[in-house]
Amino acid sequence: MHIIKAENYKEMSELAASKIVEQVNKKSDSVLGLATGSTPEGLYKEVIQAYKDGNVSFKNVTSFNLDEYVGLNKDNDQSYYYYMHHLLFDHIDINSDQANLPNGDANDLQEECNRYEKAIQQAGGIDIQILGIGLNGHIGFNEPGTLFSMQTHIVDLDESTRQANARFFNSIEDVPLQAITMGIDSIMQSKEIILLVSGSQKAEALDKLVNGPITEDFPASILQKHSNVTIIADREARSELSE
Ligand SMILES: N[C@@H]1[C@@H](O)[C@H](O)[C@@H](COP(=O)(O)O)O[C@@H]1O
Description:
- This protein has helices at residues 9-26, 41-52, 80-87, 109-122, 159-165, 184-188, 203-211; strands at 2-5, 31-34, 62-65, 67-69, 99-100, 128-131, 153-156, 178-181, 192-197, 229-233.
- β2, α2 (41-52) and β3 form a beta-alpha-beta unit.
- By secondary structure, the protein is of the alpha/beta class.
- It has one domain: Rossmann fold, CATH 3.40.50.
- It starts with a strand and ends in a 10-residue tail after the last strand.
- Bound molecules: 2-amino-2-deoxy-6-O-phosphono-alpha-D-glucopyranose (GLP).
- Pathway: Amino-sugar metabolism; N-acetylneuraminate degradation; D-fructose 6-phosphate from N-acetylneuraminate: step 5/5.
């Protein structure tokens, strides 16, 4: 794993955006794996800026998001569909038919998981996957205990994850109990992975990810086995890492 040391959140976001821009300029029909949460918001701002400055076009790009809550429709401002359109897709020239998220409002959720996984394969797999990390080591919504062999599947969200994400909702009761997420196996098939970490509250998780044992109890630890992972971490996030 290669660690890029960013000074702060802004620099982490800029460095990540330049990787995306470089990838898309190298291969205009790149397949991007995208993430939600607070961490990549700055990255998306920088990507929009690069697009506005005429430095990149997304018109041939396909994207797949990691996850979506179950039971929230597309108009719900807490859905990841809404987040992605609001914070990225509506501001760049990506074809919205090629900007994919799992449909957490599908009638048959299992069928939706199978369809999504197949769509990723049919697109030729993910060239660059952006990841954040949850405090408990989750990536996407793969909670501790998830088998490393899982592909896209339905998960019951950990109480701690619901609490952590409650800040975006009116109350904890409004946070969905389930989500659809790409599995660890789906994520590990990406050709390249860029994981973003910012802030001192993520310092312990980053240390475990880099130096801890590879275990399903800490899903992100599997990334130690991927051959092309870059971690972009700001100074605060690196505060518990032995140099
Ligand atoms: N499903 C998302 C993850 O993809 C994200 O990486 C994580 C951390 O979020 P944040 O960046 O807000 O700390 O939480 C959410 O639950």
